[in-house]
């Protein structure tokens, strides 16, 4: 049965992210244990609420006209000014506050990194997939506040095209711990994005120095974000800004790790791979986390239909897509402890392989990333 799309009352649960702003203000104003409110709510609170609220397995009508999605789109479009005001406002405040110890400021901006990573980058992800210029610019502005602008190129030109193959650094390999995967992505991601843009420009007969190279925009926006942090809070403000940016990127890559761990596309021979299907991403129906992360956990459908806006993403049963046992907050916490992660997830990967690829008996090349690069990869 299709879930009807209505006015603001239907979209309101997806505005849950606004709760995080007063939590940040409370931590800054009171200090002490309240500086941990953001990560407590983000990981523990939402996991408890997921358990209480249960799962949402109904699907909206995928043919719903875009005009009916205004209230859903609006929260993603207003988030940049909200996040920027919160981030720079708190940089100004805490660098002048006498009641906050250094550790409290560090903890508070860890929490801000949770906001800008789990919410800001998630909204940027939705925005950069759209075709209109305003939304794509808002996505770029959000990514600049976490110094990860190349993510747009890497995600659109590399990840979606090459997910589940050796070309995609974000696809975590079977038995690969998060910490190793994280530093591999940090090392390989910027160069991978640069090569993708260079290849695209070359096809148009342009060099990397051409004004259409988005890396010019990425650099300018990131420099502006850093300059504003310094202007508002001096060197301390700049350090706090950089800290929240690192936490945000760590949060993003934790989610990326969870989304595709161990899932690979069948190698068809030479440089060919099967097309992307719902089975190549982990799916989760946990209701509250999907409200908070605008249906990001319906990731199987996002990769199957990348142009579909978040309110219309479909969910799949276990017969079509592999299912996570918990929502992203609990799964990302589990990923931080590789032995516990492997104990929970490796049997699921092996079951997935047996279900979809029973004829493949040797997975060693898949596990190590030794398969040939897909055709067209640079």
UniProtKB/TrEMBL annotation:
InterPro entries: AlkB/XylM, FA_desaturase_dom
Membrane topology reported for the UniProt record: Multi-pass membrane protein
Coiled-coil segments on the chain, per record: none
Annotated TM spans: 12-30, 74-94, 106-124, 223-246
UniProt domain Fatty acid desaturase: residue ranges: 106-333
Localisation per UniProt entry: Cell inner membrane
Keywords: Cell inner membrane, Cell membrane, Iron, Membrane, Metal-binding, Monooxygenase, Oxidoreductase, Transmembrane, Transmembrane helix
Family the entry assigns: Belongs to the fatty acid desaturase type 1 family. AlkB subfamily.
Protein known as: Alkane 1-monooxygenase
């Amino acid at each position: 049965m299709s879930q009807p799309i209505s006015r603001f009352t239907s979209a309101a649960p997806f505005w849950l992210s606004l709760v995080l702003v007063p939590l940040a203000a409370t931590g800054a104003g009171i200090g002490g244990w309240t500086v941990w409110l953001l990560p407590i709510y983000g990981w523990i609170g939402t996991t408890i609420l997921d358990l209480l609220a249960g799962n949402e397995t109904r699907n909206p009508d995928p043919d719903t006209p875009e005009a009916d999605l205004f209230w859903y789109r609006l929260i993603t479009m207003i988030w940049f000014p909200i996040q920027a005001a919160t981030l720079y406002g708190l940089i100004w405040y805490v660098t002048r506050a006498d009641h906050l110890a250094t550790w409290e400021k560090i903890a508070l901006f860890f929490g801000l990194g949770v906001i800008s990573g789990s919410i800001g980058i998630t909204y940027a992800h939705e925005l950069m997939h759209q075709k209109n210029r305003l939304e794509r610019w808002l996505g770029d502005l959000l990514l600049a506040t976490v110094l990860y602008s190349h993510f747009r190129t890497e995600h659109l030109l590399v990840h979606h095209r090459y997910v589940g193959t050796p070309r995609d650094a974000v696809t975590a390999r079977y038995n690969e711990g998060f910490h190793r995967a994280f530093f591999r992505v940090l090392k390989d991601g910027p160069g991978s994005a640069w090569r993708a843009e260079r290849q695209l420009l070359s096809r148009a007969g342009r060099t990397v120095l051409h004004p259409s190279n988005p890396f010019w925009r990425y650099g300018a926006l990131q420099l502006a974000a850093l300059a504003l942090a310094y202007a508002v809070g001096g060197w301390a403000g700049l350090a706090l800004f950089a800290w929240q940016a690192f936490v945000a990127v760590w949060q993003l890559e934790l989610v990326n790790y969870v989304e595709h761990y161990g899932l690979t596309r069948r190698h068809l021979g030479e440089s060919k791979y099967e097309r992307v299907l719902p089975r190549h991403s982990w799916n989760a129906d946990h209701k509250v986390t999907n409200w908070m992360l605008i249906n990001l956990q319906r990731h199987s459908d996002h990769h199957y239909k990348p142009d579909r806006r978040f309110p219309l993403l479909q969910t799949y049963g276990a017969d079509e897509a592999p299912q996570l046992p918990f929502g992203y907050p609990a799964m990302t916490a589990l990923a931080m402890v590789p032995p516990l992660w492997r104990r929970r997830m490796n049997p699921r990967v092996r079951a997935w392989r047996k279900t979809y690829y029973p004829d493949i008996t040797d997975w060693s090349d898949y596990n190590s990333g030794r398969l040939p690069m897909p055709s067209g990869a640079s």
